[in-house]
UniProtKB/TrEMBL annotation, chain A:
The keyword Mitochondrion does not apply. Keywords: Membrane, Transmembrane, Transmembrane helix. The keyword Ubl conjugation does not apply. Residues 12-145 form the DUF1468 domain. InterPro entries: DUF1468. This is DUF1468 domain-containing protein. It comes from the Bacteria. Pfam families: TctB.
From TrEMBL, chain B:
This is Tricarboxylate transporter. Keywords: Membrane, Transmembrane, Transmembrane helix. It comes from the Bacteria. The keyword Transmembrane helix applies. Residues 20-447 form the DUF112 domain. It comes from Paramylibacter kogurei. The keyword Glycosyltransferase does not apply. The chain crosses the membrane at residues 25-49, 61-87, 107-136, 148-164, 170-187, 199-221, 362-386, 398-414, 442-459, 479-495.
Amino acid sequence: MFLHRQMIFLYVTLAVSAGYLVTALSLGPPIAESGLTPAFFPTLVGGAAIVFCSILIVQALQAKPETAPADDARSYTHFWVVVAIFFYIVAFKPLGYFLSSGLFVFALILLFSNFEKLILKAIISAAIVGIAFVMFQQLFGVRLPTLWG
Amino acid sequence: MDFIFLVFSSLSLLADPLNLTYVILGFVIGTVFAAIPGLTATLAMALLLPLTYSLSVDTALMACASIYMAGMCGGSITATTINIPGAPSSMMTALDGYPMQQQGKGALALGHAALGSMFGGAVGALLLIAVAPFVAELSLLVKTTGKFSLLAFALIVVVIAQRGRIPQAGLAACIGLMLATVGLDAMEPITRFTYGYSSLTAGIDLMPVIIGTFAIAEVLMQSCTRTDISAATAAANKVKIRRRDFLPPLSDIRKIGFGCYFKSCLIGYFVGTLPGAGGSMGSFLAYTEAVRTSSEPETFGKGNPQGIAASESANNAVCGGAMVPMLTFGIPGDPITAIMLGVLVINGIQPGPQLMADQAGLIAPMLATLLFSAVVLIPLTLWLIGPYFIKIVSVRKDVLYAVIALLAVVGSYVATYSTFQMFMALGMGVLAFYLRRNGFPVITMLLGYILGPNLEEFLRRSLALSNGDPTTFFTNPDSLFFVILTLVFVYFLVIRKPAQKPAAIKTK
């Protein structure tokens, strides 16, 4: 009950809000003789975020166990999509657009489908990357990194 | 009057092959994205946002207007044919559209939806063209304190409009405001919340926020909630859709009545002017009103074309309404107008009271396109690709999401040619994904982020001008007006009990 998915999200948000508020307070006093300082607004926002977070945590704790949202069947596809995007960004400049994008699109097609017809999916990936390159570089004049400079 | 003339003369810009190509392309893309369950026209616009760098501002805005109009009517396609609204704004259309499809009148239902959309889009655009210059003139009267109260009003309304999840909306708005405070302070040379990263000194860019919130988050959402529409599309494919069946008979239109169309348009338009309300609320209220005033309320939900007409007229009229606060005050009414605002900001144009006065020539073609899309492109699209709609929405989802992810990530790179923006888009996508997954409305986060800098600046300026006296917000007439307006909305949306839903909606 204390550690289901939504509660974890709320605790993390509360921690981030508290960290934000502490940083805001470290900017100096919110009000000075000359008026409001750059610390005032963030202090206000951080305080409001903590209040909203607390309300939501109390509401979630007061909710009966059966009314609390039950974790549905675990699927980690979204996690792998995030990992794929992360490594794509890391590899984007060193590997160049074609290689990194080809691998990325192929990986995503596999994540959204299954491990069958791999050759067909590889061909589709190559076609998508080629069309996107023409669209970005030729049609809209965007310079994309390539291995040949 | 000059502005109205300028808008109509701007229709000539559509004779330019480049402009027309982008407008038509935008409309087709908007329709396809709105038609496919899980995708939205907002996503289409977010993906196309980076490409506006290479277009002239007026062409980009014209393309945005056509995507917006297409997005509002495209959702009715799957709402009618497979009972899965392609966009939330077409939720009410499914109530009567799908029963008509089951009765073998799917093409007629699509025809009614297109007619309603056409009427709603045209009336909304005309009202916008007629009203916006006056609102813009009035907005010039709003001074610093009034501007703060107006922005606070917009943010509060967006939060309280999320009935049943106000704390979630409040927290989302705070997260948006937190993001807005990152970087150099607007009034003093102090950096805030950069934690030593020089890339954050200029603040968090709008582009990764939009791409992350709408594109990357959508891909992540779809990766864990896959909608399998193959069975529904296979069933819908069996019903033959012929072009000649699209045209609603005059007797049907007479039965629906001009009053129903027009009233729904007005409802949609005024709902559109409220920040955060959007097409779904407009169509819901118009549908409710159609049921309430109908002599045969029991027929709603069983295939009554009046329900489709009311819902579609309203959600397309929202387009015109939502642009009023965006163009006159720089307050977006919904996610799509927020992205349009992004197009303006990216091109160095500051939306607000001066926009209509100084850049009317830039805004007029966009409004002309809105009207053109409603009157010409909605019926034309239905006629040309209507029979193939089902085939379009049956596109392979694995390929589709891979393409979206590629366009989103590469799109976030083109603004500054730096991978930092790509990481930022990924971070925003993950944040928006978890917000959505836990029932937080991301539109309030986006509005908090967009309105935050001005909200803070006007608050500090107002208090500086009044020597720190907070009663200035109640003693200045323009500010007092928005304070009272805020209280009125709080009363109607929070304190007063919500209206009862009609039986047809309850059962669904």
